[in-house]
């Protein structure tokens, strides 16, 4: 989730908890920092794109990592507010850090909840990574809490509930749309194996639909303000993760991409000197008209390109990171 939403959850949490911390000094700035600190991993790895994929939203955004961070921050806070019990502030900071973890979990990018004990990436379909309705409503509630001093605690508690209620409502809505879309495909006689619906940019108006159809994916957008149903979705060729792992024996980035991607697909160009494979992930591709205009003429995020010689050896590769990625890089092999 975007930094503004993370920081707002910390401010909201600090306002909600203030009633139970009458002796605390500088509680709000520490609460805001607690809600952001799991993102500290962005300062490590430098320009290494593989490190970014492997460890961003890794141990620092896990149950274990958030606990360690909360305990350390509570120790620092004890130096600032000596009258505040250590365990009391540690509990608050852990709740706020876990709220950060939750806000990352509800996006399709997901997070490694069990790191460092497992690198499995968990993800729910609760919100697009930038959701104006979600964030602006939270900011409005913060504003109301700051203005209405007598009802500040109540408004802030309601605000904290908002960070959970909205994504859960989206999940329920997405499940319903998924069922309706599948029924419409059946009614129209469109062959498919599986349908997956997730919030897209400007949700809950726009929803991304990924249909698995044999060797292909179908990509479509549902517009709740006037959609005619699945007419002519974009068809792309699914990438074989086993083949990506095979390429990973030459360049490890390709095995990492196989692990990282959820719905990988590819395009291929061939010439006399070999061929070029371009891999994408449908998590970061959209037929949503807003995103289509945004990315028009620009490379899609999280794109991995390989140049192969006639024998299938990688001679060069490049990677296009995401908007929040610090790592866009490539290499050449011998």
TL;DR of this structure?
With 334 residues, the chain is of the alpha+beta class.
Describe the structure.
This protein has 334 residues and is an alpha+beta fold. It folds into 3 domains: 122 residues, no CATH class; 50 residues, no CATH class; 94 residues, no CATH class. 43% of the residues lie in helices and 18% in strands. The protein is built from 10 helices and 9 strands. It has a 9-stranded antiparallel β-sheet. A hairpin with a 2-residue loop joins strand 2 and strand 3. The protein is globular, with a radius of gyration of 22 Å. This is Inner membrane protein. Keywords: Hydrolase, Membrane, Transmembrane, Transmembrane helix.
Quick tags:
hydrolase; alpha+beta; 334 residues; transmembrane
List the helices and strands and how they pair.
Blueprint: H1 3-17, H2 27-36, H3 49-55, H4 63-80, H5 86-105, H6 132-147, H7 152-187, E1 194-199, E2 206-213, E3 216-223, E4 234-238, H8 241-248, H9 252-260, E5 264-271, E6 274-281, H10 289-294, E7 303-308, E8 314-320, E9 329-332
Antiparallel strand pairs: 1-2, 2-3, 3-4, 4-5, 5-6, 6-7, 7-8, 8-9
Helix pairs in contact: 1-2, 1-5, 1-6, 1-7, 2-5, 3-9, 4-5, 6-7, 8-9
